[in-house]
Protein backbone atom coordinates (compact mmCIF):
# COMPACT_ATOMS: atom_id res chain seq x y z
CA UNK A 1 0.00 0.00 0.00
CA UNK A 2 2.75 2.41 1.00
CA UNK A 3 4.80 1.55 -2.05
CA UNK A 4 1.93 2.64 -4.31
CA UNK A 5 1.70 5.95 -2.50
CA UNK A 6 5.38 6.65 -2.94
CA UNK A 7 5.33 5.99 -6.66
CA UNK A 8 2.30 8.24 -7.04
CA UNK A 9 3.94 11.13 -5.24
CA UNK A 10 6.96 10.77 -7.47
CA UNK A 11 4.80 10.88 -10.59
CA UNK A 12 2.81 13.88 -9.35
CA UNK A 13 5.90 15.80 -8.32
CA UNK A 14 6.18 18.88 -10.49
CA UNK A 15 9.78 19.66 -9.54
CA UNK A 16 12.01 21.03 -12.29
CA UNK A 17 14.40 18.16 -11.49
CA UNK A 18 12.00 15.81 -13.28
CA UNK A 19 12.95 17.48 -16.56
CA UNK A 20 16.48 16.07 -16.36
CA UNK A 21 17.67 12.50 -16.51
CA UNK A 22 20.47 13.13 -13.99
CA UNK A 23 22.18 15.69 -11.78
CA UNK A 24 24.88 15.83 -14.40
CA UNK A 25 22.41 16.71 -17.16
CA UNK A 26 20.84 19.43 -15.02
CA UNK A 27 24.16 21.02 -13.99
CA UNK A 28 25.45 20.93 -17.55
CA UNK A 29 22.23 22.47 -18.93
CA UNK A 30 22.19 25.26 -16.34
CA UNK A 31 25.89 26.04 -16.82
CA UNK A 32 25.59 26.30 -20.62
CA UNK A 33 22.42 28.43 -20.33
CA UNK A 34 24.23 30.65 -17.79
CA UNK A 35 27.19 31.06 -20.16
CA UNK A 36 24.85 31.87 -23.05
CA UNK A 37 22.96 34.51 -21.06
CA UNK A 38 26.17 36.14 -19.81
CA UNK A 39 27.59 36.11 -23.34
CA UNK A 40 24.33 37.51 -24.77
CA UNK A 41 24.53 40.44 -22.33
CA UNK A 42 28.31 40.83 -22.54
CA UNK A 43 28.50 40.91 -26.33
CA UNK A 44 25.63 43.35 -26.69
CA UNK A 45 23.36 40.69 -28.21
CA UNK A 46 26.17 38.78 -29.97
CA UNK A 47 27.41 41.82 -31.89
CA UNK A 48 30.98 41.73 -30.51
CA UNK A 49 32.01 38.06 -30.60
CA UNK A 50 35.75 37.50 -31.06
CA UNK A 51 35.56 34.40 -33.29
CA UNK A 52 39.34 34.20 -33.31
CA UNK A 53 38.98 32.63 -29.85
CA UNK A 54 36.26 30.09 -30.63
CA UNK A 55 38.59 27.17 -29.84
CA UNK A 56 38.70 28.35 -26.25
CA UNK A 57 34.88 28.40 -26.13
CA UNK A 58 34.74 24.73 -27.15
CA UNK A 59 37.55 23.93 -24.68
CA UNK A 60 35.68 25.65 -21.84
CA UNK A 61 32.49 23.72 -22.52
CA UNK A 62 34.40 20.41 -22.55
CA UNK A 63 36.08 21.50 -19.30
CA UNK A 64 32.69 22.22 -17.69
CA UNK A 65 31.55 18.74 -18.73
CA UNK A 66 34.59 17.09 -17.15
CA UNK A 67 34.36 19.30 -14.08
CA UNK A 68 30.73 18.41 -13.35
CA UNK A 69 31.41 14.73 -13.98
CA UNK A 70 34.26 14.77 -11.48
CA UNK A 71 32.60 17.08 -8.97
CA UNK A 72 29.27 15.23 -8.88
CA UNK A 73 30.80 11.77 -8.55
CA UNK A 74 32.99 13.17 -5.79
CA UNK A 75 30.05 14.87 -4.05
CA UNK A 76 28.21 11.54 -3.94
CA UNK A 77 30.64 10.20 -1.32
CA UNK A 78 28.99 10.28 2.14
CA UNK A 79 31.61 12.47 3.91
CA UNK A 80 31.80 14.92 1.01
CA UNK A 81 28.02 15.24 0.95
CA UNK A 82 27.97 16.17 4.65
CA UNK A 83 30.67 18.84 4.30
CA UNK A 84 29.09 20.39 1.17
CA UNK A 85 25.57 20.43 2.65
CA UNK A 86 26.57 21.92 6.01
CA UNK A 87 29.21 24.16 4.44
CA UNK A 88 26.64 25.85 2.19
CA UNK A 89 24.35 26.35 5.19
CA UNK A 90 27.15 28.03 7.14
CA UNK A 91 28.45 30.14 4.27
CA UNK A 92 27.05 33.35 5.79
CA UNK A 93 29.13 33.10 8.96
CA UNK A 94 30.94 36.23 10.08
CA UNK A 95 34.34 34.61 9.63
CA UNK A 96 33.81 33.44 6.03
CA UNK A 97 35.52 36.42 4.32
CA UNK A 98 38.57 36.22 6.60
CA UNK A 99 38.88 32.44 6.23
CA UNK A 100 38.41 32.66 2.46
CA UNK A 101 41.15 35.27 2.09
CA UNK A 102 43.55 33.27 4.24
CA UNK A 103 42.82 29.95 2.52
CA UNK A 104 42.25 31.00 -1.08
CA UNK A 105 44.12 34.28 -1.59
CA UNK A 106 47.10 34.63 0.75
CA UNK A 107 47.68 30.89 1.35
CA UNK A 108 48.65 31.41 5.01
CA UNK A 109 48.84 27.66 5.61
CA UNK A 110 51.39 27.25 2.82
CA UNK A 111 53.45 30.08 4.34
CA UNK A 112 53.59 27.90 7.46
CA UNK A 113 54.81 24.98 5.34
CA UNK A 114 57.74 27.06 4.11
CA UNK A 115 58.44 30.44 2.52
CA UNK A 116 59.95 28.92 -0.63
CA UNK A 117 56.86 26.82 -1.25
CA UNK A 118 54.62 29.79 -0.50
CA UNK A 119 56.48 31.99 -2.99
CA UNK A 120 56.25 29.42 -5.78
CA UNK A 121 52.59 28.77 -4.99
CA UNK A 122 51.59 32.43 -4.91
CA UNK A 123 53.41 33.04 -8.23
CA UNK A 124 51.76 30.06 -9.94
CA UNK A 125 48.38 30.51 -8.23
CA UNK A 126 47.95 34.22 -8.79
CA UNK A 127 49.55 34.03 -12.23
CA UNK A 128 46.90 31.49 -13.24
CA UNK A 129 44.05 33.41 -11.59
CA UNK A 130 45.11 36.64 -13.30
CA UNK A 131 45.36 34.85 -16.65
CA UNK A 132 41.94 33.25 -16.19
CA UNK A 133 40.37 36.58 -15.19
CA UNK A 134 41.69 38.16 -18.40
CA UNK A 135 41.29 35.26 -20.84
CA UNK A 136 37.76 34.05 -20.19
CA UNK A 137 36.02 37.45 -20.27
CA UNK A 138 37.82 37.99 -23.59
CA UNK A 139 36.85 34.52 -24.91
CA UNK A 140 33.16 35.04 -24.17
CA UNK A 141 33.45 38.73 -25.06
CA UNK A 142 32.31 39.78 -21.60
CA UNK A 143 35.12 42.31 -21.83
CA UNK A 144 36.42 44.06 -24.91
CA UNK A 145 38.02 47.30 -26.00
CA UNK A 146 36.68 49.82 -28.49
CA UNK A 147 38.25 53.05 -29.75
CA UNK A 148 35.63 55.71 -30.33
CA UNK A 149 37.92 58.72 -30.40
CA UNK A 150 41.49 58.54 -31.49
CA UNK A 151 44.00 57.59 -28.81
CA UNK A 152 41.36 56.74 -26.19
CA UNK A 153 40.27 53.16 -25.46
CA UNK A 154 36.85 52.38 -23.99
CA UNK A 155 36.88 49.25 -21.79
CA UNK A 156 33.50 47.53 -22.12
CA UNK A 157 32.54 45.09 -19.35
CA UNK A 158 29.28 43.12 -19.73
CA UNK A 159 28.08 45.54 -22.35
CA UNK A 160 28.64 48.58 -20.13
CA UNK A 161 31.25 51.21 -20.83
CA UNK A 162 33.45 50.78 -17.77
CA UNK A 163 36.01 53.51 -18.38
CA UNK A 164 37.80 55.48 -21.07
CA UNK A 165 41.58 55.32 -20.82
CA UNK A 166 44.40 56.84 -22.90
CA UNK A 167 45.83 54.18 -25.26
CA UNK A 168 49.37 54.82 -24.03
CA UNK A 169 48.42 55.22 -20.36
CA UNK A 170 49.20 53.00 -17.37
CA UNK A 171 45.87 51.12 -17.19
CA UNK A 172 45.96 50.41 -20.92
CA UNK A 173 49.58 49.20 -20.59
CA UNK A 174 48.62 46.87 -17.76
CA UNK A 175 45.67 45.55 -19.78
CA UNK A 176 47.73 44.74 -22.86
CA UNK A 177 50.45 43.12 -20.76
CA UNK A 178 48.35 41.35 -18.12
CA UNK A 179 48.86 37.99 -19.82
CA UNK A 180 52.60 38.63 -20.26
CA UNK A 181 52.90 39.46 -16.57
CA UNK A 182 50.94 36.37 -15.56
CA UNK A 183 53.06 34.23 -17.92
CA UNK A 184 56.26 35.50 -16.31
CA UNK A 185 54.82 34.87 -12.83
CA UNK A 186 53.85 31.32 -13.77
CA UNK A 187 57.22 30.61 -15.44
CA UNK A 188 59.16 31.77 -12.36
CA UNK A 189 56.83 29.82 -10.06
CA UNK A 190 57.00 26.64 -12.13
CA UNK A 191 60.80 26.85 -12.35
CA UNK A 192 60.96 27.20 -8.56
CA UNK A 193 58.67 24.19 -8.21
CA UNK A 194 60.70 22.14 -10.69
CA UNK A 195 63.93 23.09 -8.93
CA UNK A 196 62.45 22.00 -5.59
CA UNK A 197 61.24 18.73 -7.08
CA UNK A 198 64.67 18.00 -8.57
CA UNK A 199 66.74 18.96 -5.51
CA UNK A 200 64.60 18.37 -2.41
CA UNK A 201 65.18 14.80 -1.24
CA UNK A 202 61.82 14.73 0.48
CA UNK A 203 59.98 15.70 -2.70
CA UNK A 204 62.07 13.29 -4.75
CA UNK A 205 61.09 10.39 -2.52
CA UNK A 206 57.39 10.85 -3.10
CA UNK A 207 56.83 12.49 -6.49
CA UNK A 208 55.48 10.81 -9.62
CA UNK A 209 56.09 12.00 -13.15
CA UNK A 210 52.45 11.92 -14.23
CA UNK A 211 50.94 13.31 -11.05
CA UNK A 212 53.49 15.92 -9.97
CA UNK A 213 55.45 16.90 -13.07
CA UNK A 214 52.85 16.79 -15.85
CA UNK A 215 50.82 19.74 -14.47
CA UNK A 216 54.01 21.81 -14.13
CA UNK A 217 55.06 21.00 -17.72
CA UNK A 218 51.58 21.91 -18.97
CA UNK A 219 51.68 25.29 -17.19
CA UNK A 220 55.14 25.89 -18.60
CA UNK A 221 53.92 24.91 -22.09
CA UNK A 222 51.06 27.44 -21.86
CA UNK A 223 53.18 30.25 -20.47
CA UNK A 224 56.06 29.85 -22.89
CA UNK A 225 53.88 29.58 -26.02
CA UNK A 226 51.84 32.57 -24.79
CA UNK A 227 54.93 34.64 -24.18
CA UNK A 228 56.34 33.57 -27.55
CA UNK A 229 53.29 35.18 -29.19
CA UNK A 230 54.30 38.52 -27.68
CA UNK A 231 57.93 38.02 -28.69
CA UNK A 232 56.90 37.20 -32.30
CA UNK A 233 54.77 40.32 -32.47
CA UNK A 234 57.34 42.65 -30.91
CA UNK A 235 60.58 41.46 -32.52
CA UNK A 236 59.71 39.35 -35.56
CA UNK A 237 56.96 41.40 -37.15
CA UNK A 238 54.40 38.72 -36.29
CA UNK A 239 56.10 35.96 -38.31
CA UNK A 240 54.75 32.55 -37.31
CA UNK A 241 52.15 34.19 -35.14
CA UNK A 242 49.34 32.19 -36.69
CA UNK A 243 50.94 28.79 -36.02
CA UNK A 244 52.06 29.79 -32.55
CA UNK A 245 48.57 31.01 -31.61
CA UNK A 246 47.20 27.59 -32.58
CA UNK A 247 49.87 25.82 -30.52
CA UNK A 248 49.08 28.09 -27.59
CA UNK A 249 45.37 27.43 -27.98
CA UNK A 250 46.07 23.68 -28.04
CA UNK A 251 48.12 23.90 -24.83
CA UNK A 252 45.37 25.80 -23.00
CA UNK A 253 42.58 23.47 -24.14
CA UNK A 254 44.51 20.30 -23.22
CA UNK A 255 45.21 21.72 -19.75
CA UNK A 256 41.57 22.75 -19.29
CA UNK A 257 40.32 19.28 -20.19
CA UNK A 258 42.91 17.64 -17.90
CA UNK A 259 42.32 20.04 -15.00
CA UNK A 260 39.45 18.32 -13.10
CA UNK A 261 41.25 14.96 -13.10
CA UNK A 262 44.83 15.45 -11.97
CA UNK A 263 46.69 17.45 -9.39
CA UNK A 264 45.25 20.70 -10.72
CA UNK A 265 41.82 19.52 -9.52
CA UNK A 266 42.68 21.09 -6.19
CA UNK A 267 42.05 24.51 -7.75
CA UNK A 268 38.26 24.14 -8.21
CA UNK A 269 37.92 21.94 -5.08
CA UNK A 270 39.93 24.04 -2.65
CA UNK A 271 37.00 26.31 -1.56
CA UNK A 272 35.84 23.24 0.39
CA UNK A 273 38.53 24.06 2.96
CA UNK A 274 36.52 27.19 3.84
CA UNK A 275 33.46 24.97 4.31
CA UNK A 276 35.49 22.65 6.55
CA UNK A 277 36.79 25.51 8.70
CA UNK A 278 33.28 27.00 9.10
CA UNK A 279 31.90 23.56 9.92
CA UNK A 280 34.48 23.02 12.67
CA UNK A 281 34.16 26.52 14.13
CA UNK A 282 30.36 26.70 14.08
CA UNK A 283 29.64 23.32 15.64
CA UNK A 284 32.62 23.67 17.99
CA UNK A 285 31.01 26.80 19.46
CA UNK A 286 27.70 24.97 19.80
CA UNK A 287 28.85 22.00 21.85
CA UNK A 288 32.01 19.98 22.26
CA UNK A 289 32.02 16.21 22.50
CA UNK A 290 33.40 15.29 25.92
CA UNK A 291 35.71 12.28 25.83
CA UNK A 292 33.83 9.32 27.30
CA UNK A 293 36.90 8.39 29.37
CA UNK A 294 38.68 11.58 30.50
CA UNK A 295 35.95 14.18 29.84
CA UNK A 296 38.02 16.57 27.69
CA UNK A 297 36.13 18.25 24.86
CA UNK A 298 38.13 17.36 21.77
CA UNK A 299 35.82 17.85 18.76
CA UNK A 300 32.32 19.17 18.12
CA UNK A 301 29.49 16.80 19.00
CA UNK A 302 28.14 17.33 15.48
CA UNK A 303 31.36 16.19 13.79
CA UNK A 304 31.73 13.19 16.09
CA UNK A 305 28.19 12.11 15.18
CA UNK A 306 28.71 12.85 11.46
CA UNK A 307 31.82 10.68 11.39
CA UNK A 308 30.00 7.84 13.17
CA UNK A 309 27.17 8.08 10.59
CA UNK A 310 29.54 8.26 7.62
CA UNK A 311 31.44 5.20 8.85
CA UNK A 312 28.11 3.45 9.44
CA UNK A 313 27.24 4.02 5.77
CA UNK A 314 30.53 2.26 4.96
CA UNK A 315 29.70 -0.67 7.26
CA UNK A 316 32.27 0.38 9.83
CA UNK A 317 30.92 0.54 13.38
CA UNK A 318 33.21 1.01 16.34
CA UNK A 319 30.74 0.59 19.22
CA UNK A 320 32.63 -0.90 22.16
CA UNK A 321 31.21 -3.19 24.80
CA UNK A 322 32.16 -0.54 27.41
CA UNK A 323 29.28 1.52 26.02
CA UNK A 324 31.08 4.13 23.92
CA UNK A 325 31.85 4.55 20.25
CA UNK A 326 35.56 5.01 19.50
CA UNK A 327 34.77 8.35 17.83
CA UNK A 328 33.65 9.57 21.25
CA UNK A 329 37.09 9.11 22.84
CA UNK A 330 39.76 11.79 22.64
CA UNK A 331 42.85 10.73 20.69
CA UNK A 332 45.18 9.88 23.62
CA UNK A 333 42.39 7.93 25.34
CA UNK A 334 41.60 6.09 22.10
CA UNK A 335 45.26 5.04 21.76
CA UNK A 336 45.46 4.02 25.42
CA UNK A 337 42.25 2.04 24.97
CA UNK A 338 43.92 0.07 22.18
CA UNK A 339 46.92 -0.62 24.41
CA UNK A 340 44.47 -1.91 27.01
CA UNK A 341 42.96 -4.26 24.44
CA UNK A 342 46.43 -5.60 23.64
CA UNK A 343 47.58 -6.04 27.25
CA UNK A 344 44.35 -6.69 29.12
CA UNK A 345 45.17 -3.92 31.61
CA UNK A 346 42.86 -0.82 31.42
CA UNK A 347 45.57 1.72 30.54
CA UNK A 348 42.98 4.33 29.51
CA UNK A 349 41.59 4.42 33.05
CA UNK A 350 44.94 5.42 34.58
CA UNK A 351 44.89 9.21 34.50
CA UNK A 352 48.53 9.71 33.63
CA UNK A 353 49.38 11.90 30.65
CA UNK A 354 51.06 10.09 27.75
CA UNK A 355 54.81 10.50 28.22
CA UNK A 356 57.49 11.54 25.75
CA UNK A 357 55.69 11.14 22.43
CA UNK A 358 57.64 13.76 20.49
CA UNK A 359 60.99 11.95 20.18
CA UNK A 360 62.87 14.95 21.57
CA UNK A 361 64.82 13.02 24.19
CA UNK B 1 58.16 -26.64 -37.60
CA UNK B 2 58.72 -26.27 -33.92
CA UNK B 3 57.59 -23.62 -31.56
CA UNK B 4 59.32 -22.84 -28.36
CA UNK B 5 57.60 -21.02 -25.61
CA UNK B 6 59.87 -18.58 -23.96
CA UNK B 7 59.17 -18.02 -20.32
CA UNK B 8 59.00 -14.32 -19.47
CA UNK B 9 62.10 -13.39 -17.53
CA UNK B 10 61.25 -12.73 -13.93
CA UNK B 11 62.54 -9.44 -12.71
CA UNK B 12 64.20 -9.16 -9.35
CA UNK B 13 61.27 -7.41 -7.73
CA UNK B 14 58.90 -10.18 -8.80
CA UNK B 15 60.98 -12.95 -7.28
CA UNK B 16 61.49 -11.00 -4.10
CA UNK B 17 58.69 -11.74 -1.68
CA UNK B 18 56.71 -8.83 -0.35
CA UNK B 19 57.30 -8.01 3.25
CA UNK B 20 55.03 -6.78 6.00
CA UNK B 21 55.50 -4.94 9.26
CA UNK B 22 55.32 -7.38 12.14
CA UNK B 23 55.15 -6.24 15.78
CA UNK B 24 56.14 -8.40 18.74
CA UNK B 25 54.71 -6.24 21.50
CA UNK B 26 56.35 -8.18 24.32
CA UNK B 27 59.87 -7.15 23.26
CA UNK B 28 59.38 -3.39 23.65
CA UNK B 29 61.71 -1.74 26.17
CA UNK B 30 60.36 1.79 25.64
CA UNK B 31 63.57 3.24 24.17
CA UNK B 32 61.58 5.33 21.67
CA UNK B 33 64.10 4.74 18.89
CA UNK B 34 61.17 4.19 16.56
CA UNK B 35 59.84 7.69 17.32
CA UNK B 36 63.25 9.27 16.69
CA UNK B 37 63.76 7.28 13.48
CA UNK B 38 60.32 8.26 12.22
CA UNK B 39 61.29 11.95 12.30
CA UNK B 40 64.19 11.19 9.96
CA UNK B 41 62.17 9.58 7.17
CA UNK B 42 61.91 11.48 3.88
CA UNK B 43 58.67 13.40 3.80
CA UNK B 44 58.13 13.36 7.56
CA UNK B 45 59.56 16.87 8.08
CA UNK B 46 61.11 16.05 11.47
CA UNK B 47 57.75 15.15 12.98
CA UNK B 48 57.19 11.62 14.25
CA UNK B 49 53.98 9.78 13.46
CA UNK B 50 54.04 6.87 15.89
CA UNK B 51 53.57 6.37 19.63
CA UNK B 52 55.02 4.43 22.56
CA UNK B 53 52.77 3.90 25.56
CA UNK B 54 53.31 2.88 29.16
CA UNK B 55 50.90 0.06 29.84
CA UNK B 56 50.59 0.64 33.60
CA UNK B 57 52.69 3.75 34.23
CA UNK B 58 52.27 3.96 38.01
CA UNK B 59 53.18 0.33 38.62
CA UNK B 60 55.74 -1.01 36.15
CA UNK B 61 57.85 -0.13 33.12
CA UNK B 62 56.04 -2.19 30.48
CA UNK B 63 55.70 -0.29 27.22
CA UNK B 64 54.16 -0.94 23.81
CA UNK B 65 54.57 0.82 20.49
CA UNK B 66 51.49 1.90 18.57
CA UNK B 67 51.47 2.99 14.98
CA UNK B 68 49.16 2.94 11.99
CA UNK B 69 48.16 -0.67 11.38
CA UNK B 70 47.29 0.03 7.72
CA UNK B 71 43.74 -1.29 7.72
CA UNK B 72 42.54 -3.18 4.67
CA UNK B 73 39.36 -1.01 4.79
CA UNK B 74 40.71 2.18 6.39
CA UNK B 75 38.19 4.31 8.31
CA UNK B 76 40.34 7.43 7.84
CA UNK B 77 40.14 7.22 4.04
CA UNK B 78 36.45 6.34 4.17
CA UNK B 79 35.71 9.46 6.23
CA UNK B 80 37.84 11.85 4.14
CA UNK B 81 35.64 14.28 2.17
CA UNK B 82 38.51 15.27 -0.13
CA UNK B 83 39.83 11.80 -1.05
CA UNK B 84 43.17 13.00 0.27
CA UNK B 85 44.11 9.67 1.88
CA UNK B 86 45.19 7.24 -0.80
CA UNK B 87 46.02 3.57 -0.52
CA UNK B 88 49.29 2.44 -2.09
CA UNK B 89 49.43 -0.73 -4.17
CA UNK B 90 51.45 -2.34 -1.37
CA UNK B 91 48.47 -1.83 0.95
CA UNK B 92 50.01 1.09 2.86
CA UNK B 93 47.48 3.78 3.79
CA UNK B 94 49.27 6.97 2.84
CA UNK B 95 49.42 10.32 4.60
CA UNK B 96 47.11 13.06 3.27
CA UNK B 97 48.03 14.54 -0.11
CA UNK B 98 49.10 18.08 0.79
CA UNK B 99 47.14 19.77 -1.97
CA UNK B 100 43.93 17.86 -1.32
CA UNK B 101 43.65 17.87 2.49
CA UNK B 102 41.05 20.51 3.46
CA UNK B 103 41.77 20.30 7.17
CA UNK B 104 38.43 18.96 8.41
CA UNK B 105 40.09 16.39 10.73
CA UNK B 106 37.43 13.74 10.05
CA UNK B 107 40.23 11.16 9.78
CA UNK B 108 41.47 11.83 13.32
CA UNK B 109 37.96 11.21 14.63
CA UNK B 110 37.34 8.17 12.43
CA UNK B 111 40.55 6.21 13.10
CA UNK B 112 39.70 3.50 15.67
CA UNK B 113 43.29 3.64 16.96
CA UNK B 114 43.67 7.46 17.13
CA UNK B 115 46.71 7.53 14.84
CA UNK B 116 46.42 10.54 12.45
CA UNK B 117 47.95 13.77 13.72
CA UNK B 118 46.93 17.25 12.67
CA UNK B 119 49.11 20.32 12.17
CA UNK B 120 46.92 23.37 12.90
CA UNK B 121 49.47 25.82 11.47
CA UNK B 122 49.86 24.02 8.17
CA UNK B 123 46.18 23.00 8.09
CA UNK B 124 47.30 19.51 7.20
CA UNK B 125 46.85 15.99 8.52
CA UNK B 126 49.84 13.65 8.64
CA UNK B 127 50.04 9.99 9.54
CA UNK B 128 52.32 6.95 9.22
CA UNK B 129 52.79 6.13 5.53
CA UNK B 130 54.92 3.07 6.33
CA UNK B 131 57.87 5.11 4.91
CA UNK B 132 56.47 4.44 1.47
CA UNK B 133 59.58 5.73 -0.30
CA UNK B 134 61.44 2.86 1.41
CA UNK B 135 58.86 0.08 1.65
CA UNK B 136 57.79 0.37 -1.99
CA UNK B 137 61.29 -0.96 -2.74
CA UNK B 138 61.05 -3.56 0.05
CA UNK B 139 63.38 -1.60 2.34
CA UNK B 140 62.17 -1.74 5.97
CA UNK B 141 60.43 1.35 7.34
CA UNK B 142 62.55 3.58 9.59
CA UNK B 143 60.97 2.36 12.82
CA UNK B 144 61.62 -1.32 12.03
CA UNK B 145 65.15 -0.66 10.80
CA UNK B 146 66.24 0.89 14.11
CA UNK B 147 64.26 -1.16 16.65
CA UNK B 148 66.97 -2.64 18.93
CA UNK B 149 64.79 -5.38 20.41
CA UNK B 150 63.03 -6.73 17.31
CA UNK B 151 59.69 -5.41 18.49
CA UNK B 152 59.22 -4.06 14.99
CA UNK B 153 60.29 -6.38 12.18
CA UNK B 154 60.01 -6.33 8.40
CA UNK B 155 59.20 -9.90 7.42
CA UNK B 156 58.05 -11.92 4.43
CA UNK B 157 54.84 -13.90 4.58
CA UNK B 158 56.80 -17.16 4.96
CA UNK B 159 58.87 -15.75 7.83
CA UNK B 160 55.65 -14.74 9.56
CA UNK B 161 54.37 -18.29 9.02
CA UNK B 162 57.53 -19.68 10.68
CA UNK B 163 56.86 -17.37 13.64
CA UNK B 164 53.34 -18.70 13.78
CA UNK B 165 54.44 -22.37 13.78
CA UNK B 166 56.91 -21.69 16.61
CA UNK B 167 54.27 -20.04 18.73
CA UNK B 168 51.35 -22.36 18.37
CA UNK B 169 49.11 -21.72 21.34
CA UNK B 170 46.36 -23.91 19.95
CA UNK B 171 43.70 -21.29 19.47
CA UNK B 172 44.89 -19.52 16.30
CA UNK B 173 45.02 -16.32 18.36
CA UNK B 174 48.77 -16.01 18.12
CA UNK B 175 48.41 -12.68 16.33
CA UNK B 176 45.86 -10.00 16.87
CA UNK B 177 42.72 -10.17 14.87
CA UNK B 178 39.19 -9.65 16.06
CA UNK B 179 38.41 -8.99 18.90
CA UNK B 180 41.72 -7.19 19.57
CA UNK B 181 41.46 -5.04 16.45
CA UNK B 182 38.51 -3.50 14.65
CA UNK B 183 39.18 -5.05 11.27
CA UNK B 184 41.73 -6.71 8.99
CA UNK B 185 45.09 -4.93 8.91
CA UNK B 186 48.22 -5.11 6.79
CA UNK B 187 50.42 -4.93 9.89
CA UNK B 188 50.67 -8.16 11.88
CA UNK B 189 50.68 -7.72 15.66
CA UNK B 190 51.87 -10.41 18.03
CA UNK B 191 50.20 -9.99 21.42
CA UNK B 192 52.29 -9.98 24.61
CA UNK B 193 52.22 -13.12 26.69
CA UNK B 194 51.99 -15.46 23.75
CA UNK B 195 55.75 -15.92 23.52
CA UNK B 196 55.98 -16.97 27.18
CA UNK B 197 58.60 -19.58 27.78
CA UNK B 198 60.46 -18.81 24.56
CA UNK B 199 64.05 -17.82 25.22
CA UNK B 200 64.84 -14.63 23.37
CA UNK B 201 68.25 -13.29 22.47
CA UNK B 202 68.25 -9.56 21.94
TrEMBL record, chain A:
Coiled coil: none annotated. Gene3D superfamilies: Transmembrane di-heme cytochromes, Chain C. SUPFAM superfamilies: Respiratory nitrate reductase 1 gamma chain (SSF103501). InterPro entries: NarG-like_sf. The chain crosses the membrane at residues 28-47, 53-72, 123-145, 170-195, 216-236, 242-261. Keywords: Membrane, Transmembrane, Transmembrane helix. This is Uncharacterized protein. It comes from Aquibacillus salsiterrae. The lineage of its organism: Bacteria, Bacillati, Bacillota, Bacilli, Bacillales.
From TrEMBL, chain B:
Signal peptide: none annotated. InterPro entries: 4Fe4S_Fe-S-bd (IPR017896), 4Fe4S_Fe_S_CS (IPR017900), ET_IronSulfur_Cluster-Binding (IPR050954). Keywords: 4Fe-4S, Iron, Iron-sulfur, Metal-binding. Residues 19-49, 55-90, 92-121 form the 4Fe-4S ferredoxin-type domain. This is Electron transfer flavoprotein. One of its GO terms (molecular function) is metal ion binding. Transmembrane segments: none annotated.
Amino acid sequence: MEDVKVSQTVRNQQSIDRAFASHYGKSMFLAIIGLLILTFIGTRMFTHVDLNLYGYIVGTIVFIGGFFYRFISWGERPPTKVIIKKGIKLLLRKNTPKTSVEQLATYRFIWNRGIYRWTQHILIGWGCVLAILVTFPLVFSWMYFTMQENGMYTIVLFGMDLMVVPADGFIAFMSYNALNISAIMVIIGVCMALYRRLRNLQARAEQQVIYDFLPLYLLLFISITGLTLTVLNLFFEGKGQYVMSLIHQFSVIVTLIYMPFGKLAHIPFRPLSVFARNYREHYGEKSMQACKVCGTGFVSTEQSQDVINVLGENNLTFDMKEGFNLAELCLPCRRKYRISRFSGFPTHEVSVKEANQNAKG
Amino acid sequence: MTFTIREPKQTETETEERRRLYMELENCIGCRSCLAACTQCGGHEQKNRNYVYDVNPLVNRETMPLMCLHCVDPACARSCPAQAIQIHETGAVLSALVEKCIGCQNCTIACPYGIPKFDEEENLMYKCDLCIDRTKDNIPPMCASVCPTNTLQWLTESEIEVKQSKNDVGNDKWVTSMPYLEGETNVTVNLPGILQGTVKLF
